[in-house]
Amino acid sequence: MSSDLFGADADSRAGYQPLAARLRPTDLHSYAGQAHILAPGKPLREAIERRQLHSMIFWGPPGVGKTTLARIAAEAADAHFLQLSAVLSGVKEIREAVAQARQHKASGRDTVLFVDEVHRFNKSQQDAFLPYVEDGTVIFVGATTENPSFELNNALLSRSRVYKLRSLEGAELEAVLQRGLAELGEGVAASAHCLSMIAAQADGDARRALNLLELAADLAENGEITTDTLEEVLQASLRRFDKGGDLFYDQISALHKSVRGSAPDAALYWFCRMLDGGCDPLYVARRVVRMASEDIGNADPRALTLALDAWQVQERLGSPEGELAIAQAIIYLACAAKSNAVYNAYSAAQSAIAQGDSAEVPVHLRNAPTSLMKEMDYGADYRYAHDEEGGYAAGENYFPEALKDSRYYHPVDRGLEKQIAEKLEYLRQLDKSSTIRRYD
Length: 440
Hints:
By secondary structure, the protein is an alpha/beta fold. It contains 21 helices and 8 strands.
């Protein structure tokens, strides 16, 4: 017997239940997917089958069975199951759950306390679980769609084992849909092709797949789900795109790495995936500008200009002209010569400054707007490069004296930076041969 938010018995709900709820698995045999953690011999399966549960975090996208797996584990261990939602609950509800758990503990029965969307609890709320996890009052099971490393306290993480749940594969979803068809009864039918279409649209989410199947069954004439039925059901449906969540950052990461890897087709694919999921094109435009400096840099300075132009087109014209301009920039960047020399130079200079002293500006480089400053030799002996041979003051130093030989920028031998490297080497040779050397 289990309780949900301390309300009615979870097994005694009356009235209509969605298809996904009716098909919720009750044991590992009927549970779909997650073989990487639940195959025979895997630690989690062993813990469930041996009724030796431990505190854990289930991390994965929506609709992959986090809540169901927690219920199955509790049922297998004959433990009392309590469920909290971090969206609706606070410290008061946590205390009530602990009080219930203590009553069951006194009668010799463990309690699995399942916290859905645990990442929504703040630090103090997460800390409230620690004493009861420590003394065994509850077996804590948290579910989250967000990366636990960023969203959960280290103290709670150190007391729990994290299991990463994956989106269901197409074949796994189709198997779930076959069970859904059987549950709907003999009056509903769908071809393998239609089930494949639903699985593809569900994008790894079993709950979403069953909801789409149920909706299609309601709209189907004579119970036959056809491609026309599915087009009506799916036309307003968007693929899962968790703005601000892990899926969001995974896709922008894939886009960035595709550009860096000179893979224009893959970069375009991830861009369109993000647009299809509802991402703001201006966000992508801003990230493309970053790519232009970080991964192309001076190997092809035109990349930055094109990225900024695309951003401006999106701001001025909107859709669809703006998205096309961004796509143009993405493809150009992916095909351009690559260099991270500017990015590395910037990072190296920042690191040197963070670790070093605040060195004074050399006197010859200082500004001298007043007569007093001139009397103090500010700017004295400064060599005006335009008046030097070749427009270069060979042997001059522009660093604080202690740093005069520092080098942060190391151009690569690709694109325009190959020519930049040759010029810098030529200037260094002039410095070495110059008879005028400051701080010799």
